[in-house]
Amino acid sequence: MANGITRKQHLAAYAFVLPFFVVFAAMLVAPLAYSGYLSFFADRLIGGVSFVAFENYLRAFQDPGFLAGLGRTALFLVIQVPIMLGLALFFALALDSGRARGSKALRLLIFLPYAVPGVVAVLMWGYLYGQRFGLIAQITRGIGLPAPDLLSDSNVLFSIMNIVTWTYVGYNMIVMYSALKSIPAELYEAAEIDGASQWRLAWSVKIPMIRSAIVLTVIFSVIGTFQIFNEPSLLLELAPTAITQSFTPNFYAYNLAFVNHDINYAAAIAFLLGFVIMIVSYVVQLSTQRRERLS
Amino acid sequence: MRTRASRAAVALGAGLLTTALILTGCTPGASKPSATTVTQAEIDKAMNTPTNLTFWTWVPKIQDQVDLFEKKYPKIHVKVENVGQGLDHYAKVRTASKAGNGPDVVQLEYQFISSFALSGELADLTPYGAKDIAKDYVPWVWKQGVANGKILAIPQDSGPLGNLYREDILKSAGITEPPKTWDEYKVDAQAVKDKTDSVIGNMAPNQGAGWLGLLWQAGVKPFTYDGKKGVTIHVNSPEAKKVMAYWQDMIQKDLVTTDADFTDEWYAGLNQGKYAGWLTAAWAPVFLSGAAADTSGKWRAAPLPQWDPSKPASGNWGGSADAVLKTSKHQIAAYELAKWINNAHEPALLFATEQHFFPTANSVLEDPKFVGDQPDFYGGQKVNELFAGISKTVDPDWQWLPFMEFAYTNFNETFGAAVAAHGDLGAGLDAWQKALVDYGTKQGFTVNG
Amino acid sequence: MTAQVTIPAAAPRRKPFNRERRRSNLLTVVMWLCVAYFILPLIWLFISATKDNPDLFSTFGLWFGHDFNLFANIRDVFTFQDGIYVRWTLNTVVYAGVSAIGASLLATMSGYAFAKYRFPGDKVLFSITLGAIMIPLTALAIPTYLLFSTVSITNTPLAVILPSLVSPFSVFLMRVYAADAIPDSLVEAARMDGAGEFRIFWQVGIRLLGPGIVTVMLFTLVATWNNYFLPLIMLNSGELYPLTVGLAQQEATSAAGGGAQALFSTVITGSVLSIIPLIVAFLYLQRYWQTGLATGGVKE
User: Strand B105-109 and strand B51-56: pairing?
Assistant: First the structure.
């Protein structure tokens, strides 16, 4: 291969990626660097700005609000993500098996919530959750049960889990379904003819074949979970004592910056959050790779 | 957390003639020209130069007052923008002011004026003649806009507290007169609970401003700020705890509910007669007549129940003023805008009749058009007259902390959580106290508390 | 007989496997019950849009109120505050549209390059791109705001569009898609014919990347259309708000009251109207995003 041609191709490649990376540098790298810079300072109402090195980070490790927020997110992760992805997988397999009638409509209707903007979804569920006049309360009272307080301090996290599940099951289902559809039919038709049950098929053939799609949804769900902001922000009005300032770390960073006017501490929190996300994502990825190697 | 400020706040009013005199004749401020006072010639020049002003406010339909202003000063064009409700508004103002591209005139609730004074973002209005209009306003309200000897804001509306109640529900519980003392209130609450499906009232856990108003009525003064570095914080004083012990009893006996307010559930509660009353501010009567239109004719107004009937007192909840940002490049015109809509009689009266704000200006408070109003919603009662009387009983010595955004947000998590859990309100106060002191100290204040 | 999974070797003619006969009624019922969970809230939303304020609070959620108020509500939505809703819709379309086109262009070019070229630093750059997906937005929002203020572009459409042009996930998707859809042989052949690199991209690449591009466009469109946080902090003027921020603010104003402005039915109807375009887009472009997601999911 002549060096001239390779060089020409390299130049072309750089030209192609340049526009993206220019905007990337401006919109991602620059603010990130600035954010990091800010996290090493403190701006007090009295006294103004001063350099404090790692004090903000130390403060975060001892901040009960921040730690509670992380804990809440971890809880969310181990409860909501498996349920949501489990449902998505179940739906995807069910639709792929072709055993349900109206599968095209089913697919579309389950996906529909994804098209609803988060703001509208939360407003909607906020109305539905109302203890006296919400739909759920109306129904439970209609069948004689007391209306549950779904926005109470102890229940609000699960109510949020519900909203997120409702919104994203369809999206994850479609990812998995599309992956299933691209498995060559011969692979399991023979088994079906031989009488293998759908469950067996799913377990032995389908799921392993779409492993990478499943891992993808897991990783994105993990990342999404750590970034939850819309739900606490929009439910704040309806559950003002249940949604604390530090309900989720992302929400905490926003409140610190815009309510407490503590931009510097907010930057530190956001950075720590980024680190946590990275670590958890790598752990997830490593564990799935290892399982792949072992199987 | 949102602070419910002036819903139906009212403008001032009055002083139209005075204003006209000032503008056409005499030099504002001191009769001897001073280097720091703006002269009439400078004002005239500014008002005749084509200028674009930006005005950030949440007040609905304020364009009407602004239109009148623009008609008077055709060379000044004002752009009105609503950048959000409650804390969103203040966050935006601060960020914009910091970045140097903020508005000229900004709406501020009284409780946040000191925090803006602290950061030095507000222009001192004294050089522009603000001292001359001080006498046009109810004294305690005017004081709210003054800090460190500087006049920082022109009052627009206020919210003295009273008791709105459902006469029909109370009657069916055997109560013919509204309660005059807090002890009576408790007795009546029990009657309402036993004999009807309603409760006598609702105490929202997320309504810091409302709760503080009740402390205000009781003579408790939890905050002071010396304008520089010193604050005192005493939300868990014995006097405050005494008031809260009363409410804890009321809550734990289920004599009042603890629903979050200004939610659709709460609106439905008002509409469907779940709440037989509302301890609320003077902007509430008109608000209520819109929000609970189906219950028209059944409500009445009365003063708050008293701790000491021989010394009637009230507190304040809400109300706002207009201020000028220091970053404004057109401070004279900006001041004229802030002043004129709140001081000239026509726009000020309009705040009372259109936005249904509760006035702070004496001339509007005494205007028969305002005082004589007998709304059907209240069965023809002269509600404004009643609240005008209440306004005179508001304790004038109340101060705010220069970080009320944090105070209110934290209120929800500490005291508010105790209310919602029907728990120990005294402990809730202690928790709030601790958080406030921590925050103040961390921010560099000298905290006494 | 155990059920063995056998892979038939080059079956010359596959007997069409008749799935029709093996429908399961149980599964159908279960699935449709599940669908009820997803659809009921939306049904509630649509029905509520036909009610006026008092009915909203007094009638059963899943059935109509005393009057059919849908058209009156729609009229309110469009006339409130001098038709600001139309303005908001236009803003949303512009922000989402421009961002989608821009982001797709950037992502397609980069994805193509990562897929079809080997160049120094390509692995590092790609890893950085992937890593960027993990950055929480709040870490970026305030510094971006401050940076934008220094060049005075806050409170302008640019403040919302520029950050939306960066979609690392789209780069990832396009790379996978390009690797799959564009055979190296085709590129080589074009090169041998003497075509320049850019020409190859434009004439060979883009054509084959069609469905992928549509997918990426659709997803960035949705992401910007539904974005709440970014416009919330960047914009101050009501006329610049997209629908998300506008509706949320209307809801807040409604909850706050302010001179008898109970806007709940307007907010609900406005929300319903705002969902319709996206639903239509998804219905119409089903083909594309289903394949697009497949590509991202199945391959590496």
Answer: parallel
pLDDT surpassing 90 at residue B156? yes
Best residue of C135, C164, C215, C233 to probe chain A, by most A CBs closer than 10 Å: C135
pLDDT tens, position by position, for chain A (295 residues)?
557 778 888 888 899 999 999 999 999 889 888 888 989 999 888 888 889 889 999 999 999 999 999 999 999 999 999 999 999 999 998 888 877 888 888 888 898 898 888 878 887 888 788 777 778 888 888 888 887 888 887 889 999 999 999 999 998 998 888 888 877 777 777 777 777 777 777 777 778 888 888 888 898 898 889 888 888 988 887 788 888 889 999 899 888 887 787 889 988 988 888 888 888 888 887 887 766 666 5
- Report CB contact under 8 Å: A94, C112: no
Q: What is the pLDDT of residues B168-227, one digit of tens each?
A: 999 999 999 999 999 999 999 999 999 999 999 999 998 999 999 999 999 999 999 988
Q: Which residues of C touch B287 (CB under 8 A)?
A: 257-260
- Cα torsion angle, B52, B55, B61, B65, sign: negative
Contact predicate C51/B264, CB 8 Å: no
Cα A72 from Cα A124, distance rounded (Å):
23
Q: Structure tokens of A213?
A: 């799609």
Q: Tell the residue number behind the tokens 């490790």, with chain if given.
A: A61
Residue of B nearest to A47 (CA): B444
Structure tokens at C50: 């036909």
Q: Terminal CA-to-CA distance of chain C, rounded, Å?
A: 36
Statement: residue B29 has pLDDT above 60: no
pTM: predicted TM-score of the whole model, two decimal places: 0.80
- B222: which 2 tokens? 């939890």
- Whether B81 sits inside 8 A of C238 (CB atoms) is yes
Instruction: Using a CB–CB cutoff of 8 Å, tell me whether A14 touches chain C.
Output: yes
CA-only gyration radius of chain A, Å: 24
Contact in structure between A226 and A73 (CB atoms under 8 Å): yes
Residue C191 token pair: 């090169």
Rounded Cα distance between A246 and C277, Å, is: 35
**Cβ atoms of C236 and A51 closer than 8 Å:** no
- C267 to chain A, any CB pair closer than 8 A? The answer is yes
- Out of B2, B260, B402, whose CB is closest to A45? B402
Name, in order, each residue with C-beta under 8 angstroms of A150's C-beta and a sequence gap of 6 or more. A129, A131, A134, A136, A156, A158, A159
Q: Encode pLDDT of A132-148 as tens digits.
A: 777 888 888 888 888 78
The shortest C-alpha distance from C289 to chain B (Å) reads: 36
Check if A64 contacts B (Cβ < 8 Å).
Answer: no
Distance from the Cα of B93 to chain C's closest Cα (Å) equals 10
Amino acid in position A50: S
pLDDT digits (tens, 9 = 90+) for A149-195: 888 878 899 999 999 999 999 989 988 888 888 777 777 777 777 77
Enumerate the residues of chain B whose CB falls inside 8 A of the CB of residue C228: none
Supply the ipTM of this predicted assembly.
0.79
CB contact under 8 A, A229 and C17: no
Residue B145 to residue A97: CA distance in whole angstroms: 71
Q: What percent of chain B has pLDDT over 90?
A: 61
pLDDT tens profile C130-157:
888 877 666 687 788 878 887 888 889 9
Tokens of C194: 């003497």
- Which residues on adjacent β-strands are paired with residue B150? B147
Average pLDDT score, chain B? 87
Task: Give the strand order in the sheet containing B299-303.
Answer: B277-281, B161-166, B299-303
End-to-end CA distance of chain B: 25
- Report how far Cα A108 is from the mean position of its chain's Cα atoms: 21
* Model confidence at C250: pLDDT above 90: no
Residue positions counted in chain A: 295
